Amino acid sequence: MAMRYAFAETPETMAAFVDAWHAGRVTRGEWTHGAHVAVCAWYAFDRDPDATFAIVKAGILEFARACGIVHTATSGYHETLTRFWTLMIAAHVRECGASSRWDAVRAALDRFGEDRDLPRRCYSFDVVGDVRARAEWVPPDRTVDGLPAVA
After folding, report:
1. Mean pLDDT by 10-residue block, N- to C-terminus, for the chain (151 residues)?
2. pTM for the whole structure
3. 90 occurs within a structural domain
4. Residue 150 within any structural domain of the chain
5. Which of 27, 29, 47, 127 has the fewest C-beta atoms under 10 angstroms from its C-beta?
6. Per the domain annotation, does 75 fall within a domain?
7. Would you list the DSSP string of 1-23?
């Protein structure tokens, strides 16, 4: 059974959530893993992975600034995780053949909305806690069946 996400109940609620995120009206509690996935898919529908990444990264950094999140070597924004998820979600959106932005969001949420452990399966080290990976892109060093290879 697919999870329900209040921000993505309809195309209109999703559009309003994206607008609220950009306007700094989304709370830390609302900015969940599922919200990250949905926003990324929203942009991946009609953009290439690099353009999607640029939008998502800028939005995350602005969101963090608005929430008072301080970026350090061990906390805050994580370059590798942001790029990794963007590449995975963008590939999924392309492969699923979504016919609308809304379809892209739903497909990404169905596939990745509750899969917070995917990086652990794709990296042989603690990518979340790795200082280098937080600061710069480190490609996965494991291949997982059924997932696109990203570099």
Report:
1. 83 97 93 97 97 97 91 92 97 95 96 94 95 96 81 70
2. 0.93
3. yes
4. no
5. 29
6. yes
7. -----GGGSSHHHHHHHHHHHHT
